[in-house]
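Anyone? Bumping this.
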Amino acid sequence: MFSDIKFNKEVPVYIQIKDYIKEMILGGMLQSGEKLPSTREMSSIMKVSRNTIIYAYEFLQDEGFILIKKGKGAFVSQIHVEMQEKWNVNWSTLVNDYAKDSERLDIVKHEDKWEKGMISFKSIAPDENLFDVEEFKKAFLNRMSIEGKKILNYGYAQGYKPLIEYLLKYMKNKGVNTEGKDILITNGFTEGFDIILSSLTKAKDKILCENPTHNTAIKIMKLHGLCIEGVDMDIDGINIKKLEEKLQKDKFALSYFIPSYHNPTGIVMSPEKRVQLYKLLRKYNVPIIEDGFNEELRYTGAHVAPIAALCGEGNGLIYIGSFSKILFPGIRIGWILGDKNIIGYLESVKRSRNIHTSFLDQAVFYDYLQCGNFEKYIKKARKVYREKYEFAVECAKKYISNGQVIGEGGLHIFVKLNGIDARKLLKKCYDKGVIFTPGDIFYTDDKGFDTLRLGFSRVTKEEIERGFKIIGDETKSLMKKN
Amino acid sequence: MFSDIKFNKEVPVYIQIKDYIKEMILGGMLQSGEKLPSTREMSSIMKVSRNTIIYAYEFLQDEGFILIKKGKGAFVSQIHVEMQEKWNVNWSTLVNDYAKDSERLDIVKHEDKWEKGMISFKSIAPDENLFDVEEFKKAFLNRMSIEGKKILNYGYAQGYKPLIEYLLKYMKNKGVNTEGKDILITNGFTEGFDIILSSLTKAKDKILCENPTHNTAIKIMKLHGLCIEGVDMDIDGINIKKLEEKLQKDKFALSYFIPSYHNPTGIVMSPEKRVQLYKLLRKYNVPIIEDGFNEELRYTGAHVAPIAALCGEGNGLIYIGSFSKILFPGIRIGWILGDKNIIGYLESVKRSRNIHTSFLDQAVFYDYLQCGNFEKYIKKARKVYREKYEFAVECAKKYISNGQVIGEGGLHIFVKLNGIDARKLLKKCYDKGVIFTPGDIFYTDDKGFDTLRLGFSRVTKEEIERGFKIIGDETKSLMKKN
């Protein structure tokens, strides 16, 4: 006993001794009332300094595991751990439909997984090698020295005030009138969208969106029991005629659109179409949720204002913003901009969900942004991604010659194969060490079986060329079979 | 034009110039195709270096607001911002019952607010002056140098692996058998509880809990439409007889308990009672959600194991842990420990809610914990809070002599006045500059109108004495009136 303790290098020794003795007490190897070896004895048994043992004993007493009696020694406290008869609950039968659907629709759990050595075009996360970690460190240290203690304690559900102010100005700089509007900070787009649907819809409500659209948005809409009406897209965005047909026929609770570098097609909705869309939804009084996804990753052409910029002082649109697709997605910061009144409700929902988004992250991110780092970063990132984007398009055209390449920017391209089943293709490519995202998961109906999304942000140019060639070759071999 | 720009010190000058020109373009003061002053001219108008202007113009071109034609100058791009007719949506009529209830039950919005100069006993947040910010900084810098880029990119819904491992060991050190169990990292207790109820209950389900209990838990149970059955408490925890009566009468989906330093009463459920409670719920097969609230803030006596330690390899209990009431609540990190199977479902729900909890925060927190900082911190904090607790009890007994003081630890005491309305008392105290939390918000029925919770973590001893005296005096004056 005691002499068999093994130390590791990562954890302070007195903590390891404390935990070791705790384990013996909890496991019943040391009984209540039993006397521990003196600190001198224990120090020679464990071959550590006596001070270390004294320190460990002190902690054990603090935590109520032993009692040190002056001049008499250390004794194990009255610890009650009576293991009870085993109780087996069959959780699978207890979870409700919401949890079951969450699991069923969780593509991370059910899609093919990347294995070492494979080329993966699944990710559209930013390339972390572009992150300016040094500037982020500076922002952290600066914020900590200004208000470190404060930002480590509880904050406010709405968000960190200076960040809210920064983002209001940021939205103004996109041409948005922020009069009468406010911002709620969320844990990324996903939470923003989930909170909005939780607050504004009920099961069986109808919601309009582009078809295809962001798969996470589809998942969340399904989890809320909504009837999703997808509207087909043209090369410059949603088909306005089909949109109007749907609006004439049905009553919709909400609509959801990704006008810039649309996920998964990469299409930028033209300014004219934005105006048409806005007018139509206003006419039928269906509030718009605009997803500002990747708006910052413009590679060419003139600035295109978000639909939110068309509203003026009107309040029929809620904008969800996030830098997560470009910068530091690990800290999960997004925002909702909308009418003050609705933000008030969403704030209470946010508080009931998780009190608030990390104040540390919000404060550090604010510090990082306001020094102009974001502008510098986006300049660099845009250059790198643009080059990669152009290379990816070129390779796709060259190697996947049966496919039609869609998309004007962002971190991915979308390919429409003419009638070839993308899941069959994936299976064959998987065997050759290449994976991608089959396009069907983005569709609200059964279309899209012959489409795929190819994310290029985290692969090298060499991998793009090699991977696309494999996809192209497999496409051709599938064509022959047809 | 241009010469009226005003610079501030916080933001780089080129960004201010860029934003200023953007605003003019978006506001229509600069028209599409219009030529901007040359960089030389602009530099003399704005009284900044020419390089600054060149830099600002470059950014404007990058963002698509201007086009720089070599040898010809800079021209405003084709920007379409057509402000549309105002669209007014009446959001208050569109929000659903869930959002309305969230707002209605949001005590931050509806309870009396602290004003400058007041003594507030409302908070039970930790005193941030005890935080060891230097150690936290070290942990941050260490983690950043090891894997800074990685933890700023997307992580996993379940959580940061080393933190999960640390917490599994931490739970083992409380006597919990972690065989067949797993951990999900959440944004604090609140998110953990919300995710569990979202996954395991449906509206109208019955849930058991102590009466009184944590007000945020009551809010979340109500928001899920659950029928809450509160069981009265004795001085050593829940009344077992009353608990069994309820179990005999009704079928319950879940039960929720706070066995240690119970909120709001501060009662520690005795080890014997823990065993009785566990056996009863196993008998009736009602899964337990154990809230590990403030378990760490033991001031006296032997270690009391959580109910989770009674389960052995059984899986009928889900434990929710959080350090938020003691350490760094601003980063919002908590965890759920439970059967691997149920954690799998909860993980998918977490992913559909907000992808994952900040990986930066999880990684830094892990680094902080594994160096033994938590043990050192809790030793210091326990000493400070214990002293304050004892002082608060002493003052309460001295000044609020009509009340019965309940509670054995934690960051608050609970006072039962004999028949005096705590809301009337609050009104009178408010006028004298003292606020506290009226106890009724913790009750699942109409009891508790004559109780109050007094948090002492963020007030000085002097404020405790002065504040409690005011409460005592007002109590006496209300007694006389009765």
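Late reply, but here is one note on the structure posted above: Chain A has three domains: 13-76, 111-126+380-481, 130-371.
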